[in-house]
Design a protein that fits this description.
- By secondary structure, the chain is mostly beta strands.
- About 5% of the residues lie in helices and about 15% in strands.
- The chain is built from one helix and three strands.
- The radius of gyration is 14 Å and the shape is globular.
- About 5% of the residues are buried.
Length: about 70
Amino acid sequence: MSEPVKISVRPNGPLRVEGSFELCDADGKQWDLAGKPAVSLCRCGASESKPFCDGSHRRIDFQSAPSPLPPV
């Protein structure tokens, strides 16, 4: 059985996705992530390599809540 996917919210930064997963675009085309045990996905919207993080969150001083809000 494979390990569960782990998604970590980085403070003021990206979502870090680790484990065995598929990443598909809006048309269902799968990205080739062969050999990558983890990726960081942009949350700030400023990355030039969306959906992947390129560190732009630091340049624009992206701020996010440190902990999740309770579900509504």
